[in-house]
From TrEMBL:
Protein's organism: Faecalicatena orotica
Source species, domain of life: Bacteria
Protein name, as recorded: Uncharacterized protein
Any one Gene Ontology BP term: carbohydrate metabolic process
Length: 772
């Protein structure tokens, strides 16, 4: 696609029209900037500005607009439009020429975009990285499932690649609006500013957004604001209140920002997203990701922390044993009374990590503890049906159901006041009814069960390679997988949750799915264990079941970029949602089946998932206030993926690193160096936040890393007492929670690199991949 920019005279001033043409010369795209700038005063008065004049320059145009606000303050805005490959760069300078009264201002530009073949808003698809995928409408009611509106804006620090992308399905083109310069500074937002909603703030953080057009049903709007303006947002409360920052103005002050409009032809929304991601990888990403320690040192301290968390209870029923890793990083392991399997604790994953460690460092104690942990799980935590339990409370000597992640405090209490002390009033209000329904059923998530048994099989195979047989471990795996085959739906999927005898759970629907697509999102998990068991037993039934699931995933999630169901629990209006972890497991499912069947359709699907996963990943280091925890300790966001349990980029968490082995294999099969570089920034970047002797983050011991970190705000005006978690915290905080999954996933990846490539140096690894 090539574009043409024109100035259009209106009422003695000038607007801009950009036209996009396919290679054969037919116009397909029109972008109309009616008012190039809207200057908004904090008092509420806005000035819609067209250019007073423009002048042709060597590589574009310089356009000028002047404005005077209600107080008589005068401003001059200079926009330089320069031609870029496949689009234009807008370099904007705002000069405060005369200031008579103190105020604050915000600048907005709205780009009215239209596919000339589109009939209405449904003919468009969107990517706002970490937030909006396609139209976020997996229940098919025509509205975004989470915010309830398509009028959406996201602060720059919530946007992993500083871009928003729209795709015209009819004419097959995309346009991306990109923040061209990197925000450099930010300050902590105060409680007073949160209450005010609109406030003067010293920040370089702007926002990008979209909305349906109020002018034509066939068009939509891409927009940028500086500083930020979120017209609908969960940053403050579950009601989605708007809020905005304003730039304080002083005489002779000048401030600048840049934007890119990037337009190309594309065969799909995935291709459109990947083109924008690659552009930003080249423009803004530092692929080296500096660390103050080596990956070898990180591996050592992560192992030590897990090893020392081990406890046995010889006086308790069944003699529980395992790794008790769920505590505040500021304490040494905490009360240690919950053995978590699957999603949060991953005892079998930690056992596998410790077996790898024992083989490497020769410690028999490492191996003995791992074996005891797995033995206890196999002998005590699996039901007669073959399905494993999720959490065991050692103090109460009973299993706990459902209470992972954000629901964790509900396993201790149903007293509202007590719960609000942990979660804040807004989260309790949104989850109290759900918790009440879940209390009625003994069951487990499909993900949690598969995770536990998958790594149980890996432990069995690891020991077997050393000549040690554990027949009961294998029996448990086979019994579970046979039950999976019995539970598989006719369309190839599995449900999100089951009772402990294997009956699918569908109530409440906002938690377990309101449609076939949502209820069947358990499809993204079982292939990992089924293909592994197939390779060992050569029994075709396991491969056939995995294959059916992979095609369900390909047809329902990959094609429309509607990857759902990776997270067990969220605080959105519904739990079954589009999320990054859904992309990760879908990618793994299609890949592992491809590796057995060699169906290139599935490899293409896995590659597409990997490319969408890149859009969830921070390609830049957001600025933190130097007085915050993350600011003080030099935390960097490059390589961290958005965790959408908290809506849209307010929070990053630990999951992506577990899937680096799959990402590297896809990169090798497809000879895609960009995906290999993505694996590098994730592996290295996600070591930030790890307490090390060089930089302890104020944590109790080396080797501790929190589950997640606040990159913006979430439910910031909730009423709370002494919360330990993420709600009501500020940008630059951690979530004050360390759990077993964090180090378990990180070590899985580091051990894979050492074993597969004989090195953790990514330059060497990438050379091996591209030469292989």
């Amino acid at each position: 696609m090539f574009t043409d920019l024109e100035f259009v005279r209106q009422y003695e001033k000038y607007s801009i029209v950009i036209k996009g043409f396919h290679q054969e010369g037919e116009q397909k795209l029109e972008i109309f900037l009616d008012f190039p700038v809207v200057l908004q005063d904090i008092s509420g008065a806005g000035k819609k500005l067209r250019y007073d004049s423009y002048e042709k320059k060597e590589n574009g145009y310089e356009a000028l607009a002047s404005a005077e606000d209600l107080y008589g303050n005068k401003y001059e805005i200079t926009d330089v439009w320069s031609q870029e490959e496949n689009g234009y760069k807008l370099s904007r300078q705002v000069a405060c020429k005369e200031i008579k009264e103190k105020t604050g201002i915000r600048l907005t530009s709205e780009f009215r975009c239209r596919d000339l073949e589109a009939a209405d808003f449904s003919d468009y698809q969107f990517i706002i990285p970490g937030a909006l995928y396609n139209q976020n409408d997996t229940d098919g009611d025509g509205m975004d499932d989470y915010l309830g509106t398509f009028n959406q804006d996201y602060k720059d620090d919530r946007n992993p690649s500083l871009s928003v992308t729209a795709y015209g399905k009819k004419s097959r083109w995309f346009v991306s609006l990109i923040r061209g310069d990197l925000p450099k500074t930010d300050e902590t937002i105060t409680r007073e500013q949160i209450r005010a909603r609109h406030f003067i703030h010293h920040t370089d953080i702007g926002s990008l957004g979209i909305s349906p057009s109020e002018y034509r049903t066939q068009e939509f709007i891409l927009r940028c604001d500086y500083p930020f303006y979120e017209r609908n947002s969960f940053c403050l409360n579950v009601d989605g209140s708007e809020w905005s920052a304003y730039k304080e103005v002083v005489e002779n002050q000048v401030f600048c920002m840049e934007y890119l409009l990037y337009a190309r032809e594309a065969g799909s929304l995935t291709e459109a997203s990947w083109n924008t991601t690659r552009l930003q990888m080249q423009r803004i990403m530092d692929p080296d990701v500096e660390l103050s320690f080596t990956l070898e040192e990180a591996k050592h301290y992560r192992r030590e922390m897990i090893h020392n968390s081990y406890r046995e209870f010889p006086d308790k029923k069944g003699k529980p044993a395992g790794y008790f890793v769920h505590f505040s990083p500021r304490s040494r392991y905490g009360e240690q009374n919950l053995l978590e399997y699957g999603f949060c604790g991953a005892q079998t994953l930690l056992s596998l990590d410790m077996m790898e460690a024992a083989k490497e460092n020769g410690s028999e104690e490492y191996r003995e503890r791992a074996v005891k942990t797995v033995d206890y799980f196999v002998e005590n935590c699996i039901e007669e049906s073959g399905l494993p339990n999720g959490i065991y409370n050692v103090d109460k000597e009973e299993y706990v159901y459902w209470w992972t992640g954000i629901l964790f405090p509900f396993q201790y209490s149903d007293d509202r006041d007590e719960l609000e002390a942990y979660l804040g009033n807004q989260v309790v209000s949104s989850l109290m009814e759900i918790a009440g329904e879940l209390r009625k059923v003994k069951g487990n998530y499909c993900r949690s069960m598969v995770d536990s048994i998958h790594y149980l099989l890996r432990c069995y195979l690891f020991e077997r390679e050393s000549g040690i047989e554990h027949p009961k471990w294998l029996e448990a795996v086979v019994k579970f997988c046979d039950k999976l085959l019995e539970m598989q739906n006719g369309n190839g999927s599995w449900n999100r949750g089951y009772t402990m005898d294997g009956k699918p759970i569908t109530n409440p629907p906002q938690w377990f799915g309101a449609s076939e697509k949502e209820q069947g999102s358990g499809a993204i998990f079982p292939a990992q264990v089924l293909t592994e068991l197939y390779r060992f037993t050569k029994e075709e039934k396991y491969l056939r079941a995995a294959e059916r699931a992979a095609y369900f995933v390909y047809d329902n999630y990959a094609g429309n970029v509607e990857y759902i169901g990776g997270l067990n629990d969220t605080t959105h209006r519904k739990s079954v949602k589009i999320d990054a972890v859904g992309v990760m497991f879908a990618m793994r499912t299609m890949l592992v089946v491809y590796e057995q069947t060699r169906d290139v359709k599935l490899l293409a699907g896995a590659r597409d998932a990997a490319r969408i996963l890149a859009s969830w990943t921070y390609l830049w280091d957001i600025p933190f206030d130097k007085d915050t925890l993350l600011g003080k300790h030099g935390f960097k966001t490059t390589g961290w993926a958005v965790c959408d349990v908290i809506p849209a980029g307010s929070y990053v968490d630990c999951e992506f690193v577990e899937f680096i082995p799959e990402l590297l294999r896809i990169a090798e099969y497809c000879k895609d160096e960009d995906l290999a570089v993505l694996a590098k920034i994730v592996t290295r970047g996600m070591q930030h936040g790890l307490s090390m002797p060089q930089n302890m983050y104020g944590y109790a011991m080396p080797g501790v890393q929190c589950e997640g970190y606040m990159t913006s705000l979430w439910l910031a005006d909730t009423e709370y007492k002494g919360f330990s978690g993420a709600a009501a915290k500020n940008k630059g905080d951690d979530n004050d929670t360390c759990n077993g999954l964090v180090n378990g996933q990180a070590l899985l990846n580091l051990d894979y690199l050492s074993r597969e490539y004989r090195t953790m140096d990514f330059d060497t690894i990438i050379r091996q991949i591209m030469a292989g």
